Amino acid sequence: MGFLCLFFTFSLLFLFSGFGFSQETPSAAPNHLGQINSNSVLVALLDSHYTELAELVEKALLLHTLEEAVGKHNLTIFAPNNEALERNLDPEFKRFLLEPGNLKSLQTLLLYHIVPARIEPNSTSDSLLHPTLSNHRLQLSTEDSSGAKFIGTARLINPNAVNRPDGVIHGIQHLLIPRSVQQDFNNRRSLRSISAVKPEGAPEVDPKTHRLKKPAPPVKPGASPVLPVYDAMAPGPSLAPAPAPGPGGPHHHFNGMRQVKDFIQTLVQYGGYNEMADILVNLTSLATEMGRLVSEGYVLTVLAPNDEAMAKLTTDQLSEPGAPEQIIYYHVIPEYQTEESMYNSVRRFGKVSYDTLRLPHKVLAQEADGSVKFGHGDGSAYLFDPDIYTDGRISVQGIDGVLFPPEEKNKEEKKTIKVATVKPRRGKLLEVACRMLVGIGQDSRFSTCHV
Fold this sequence. Notes:
alpha+beta, FAS1 domain, 2 domains, seven-stranded mixed beta sheet, 17 helices, 36% helix, elongated
């Protein structure tokens, strides 16, 4: 039995030596899954300074796919630097990529940066399309003026950053986004805006008809506000008591604060209206209210007194609480008027009264010397600098005086009634008796003699 086993062993050795069989070393064996060489380009990527890209590869669950690709091909990885992925990337787009439901888009984006072939920028011809692992194609090109290399739209800033036997890593300036991923991102944003549901209150029942009240028809963007301007103004002295609607209301179609800042800056640059601009800047509540009114869809015409007119204001006129606000309110017309429209009105109608934000006072306008004159008598002002600022929502017209509303004559004139006092007449007999009493010194006893 032992002889047979020994004979069988020598026979196998003879056969193997006859066929020239030799066992391959582990280093010559092809790379299989789980047997990645420590000198692999994939390990180099995970250990390189491209940490943001390496984290995205791990979050996208692409390690298994890349291990298989390294075992089959040489790889070229175009790696954006950390700044391109951390600071220069749109936060909303990055949030979209990291959402669990968008894993496919993240994988497509990362595989778009990997080409299953070794690409040497210095030896590759320009304008050559290279297929990527995402089934897209990338073009390597050269800029004629500076000679810089571009892969797609990204500049090649660090060629051959990592060079390994099974692949190479080239540093690029920014992230490459395939069109399919960008389309997924755009579709997601539009679907979110369409599917947004505005909160609405519970339906109201009309107690008379016991039916649901019909909601008010929606206001079209740019339409005139439904409420009067006085109902939209903030509460204050001599103003309507209704609070102002908050920003972002149903009529919020304009950036009123930006437009108010623009016309104040225009007053400064125009010259001669610095005092008016200073008052609007210092009275921040007034400027805020004007901006809020414009944001809600209202239009305003500001009659701006020049510096010479503002210098004539006395301390008594400005010292009372709320006096500067009341002066400016009387110079703001809740209509959009230009120099041409106001002049045409006064030419046609003679005198025109415009409402002001200082309720209930109105400002009178009439034609004078080929221009428009505002106010009454000595307190009047001429339209001096027409159309300083006109943007369709706010119109600023320069005038050469400060306007004040006519004083209301609330004091009733007191009518003094004079009562005629008639001395009582004495008869002749009484007159003779009083004289006799005077002669004997006894007149003081009778009051009748003293009348």
